[in-house]
Write a structure and sequence with these properties.
By secondary structure, this protein is mainly α. It has eight helices and three strands.
Length: 200
């Protein structure tokens, strides 16, 4: 499946918000709300199903990311810089939920690969700003395209009605991810390991 298919279906849903079939649209939303209202455990079951799906999808994406030749922690930090913009080493460590010395080693490795650069902070002489290079952006964009290709191939294995429902629900899943992040406490920096990055 091409990305064009996903974009066409999404545009169709956006252009015709009142349109729905027996499988999607307002009727589906009403049925889902009725099930939740009549069964208090429905929300918990949905949360568990989403958790399981997210874990399996993440594991599949991690396999694809190995094609980039960049270690997971480095690729995660690079993603923050490419899709979130330049930032100080401390801010990058905070975004990845690691200690600054750990992030400094990650940045050193990315600099050696030519994927990021360090430059003096314009307002604070003792601080540096880390920024992705053109080569770093190319690596990350290529990784994002491969992720999308693999997910698209998975979509082709589904029945058309199920595929259309997932395509239509994609914006809501993005909102769900943002809502979950807003409700999480800000954790102290860990000693090692990436904690996450903006959605590429």
């Amino acid at each position: 499946m091409s990305l064009g298919y996903i974009e066409r279906v999404t545009r169709r849903k956006s252009a015709n918000p009142g349109h729905h079939s027996d499988d999607d649209g307002p009727a589906l939303g009403a049925r889902a709300r009725n099930r939740t209202a009549s069964d208090p455990t429905a929300g918990a079951r949905t949360a568990l199903e989403l958790n399981s799906a997210a874990i399996h999808l993440l594991r599949a994406i991690q396999v694809v990311d190995r094609e980039s030749g960049v270690a997971p922690a480095r690729l995660s930090a690079l993603s923050v810089l490419v899709f979130g913009g330049p930032r100080t080493l401390t801010a990058l460590a905070r975004a990845e939920q690691v200690a600054p010395p750990t992030m400094s080693r990650v940045v050193d490795a990315l600099c050696d690969l030519g994927l990021v650069t360090r430059r003096p902070h314009p307002d604070h002489g003792r601080m540096v700003v880390v920024e992705a290079t053109d080569a770093g952006r190319e690596v990350m964009e290529r990784a994002r395209r491969r992720r999308a290709e693999v997910i698209g191939l998975g979509l082709t294995a589904l029945e058309p009605a199920a595929r259309d429902r997932i395509v239509a629900a994609a914006p809501d899943l993005t909102q769900l991810a943002a809502a979950v992040r807003r409700r999480l406490p800000t954790p102290p920096p860990a000693s090692s390991g990436p904690g996450g990055s903006p959605d590429p």
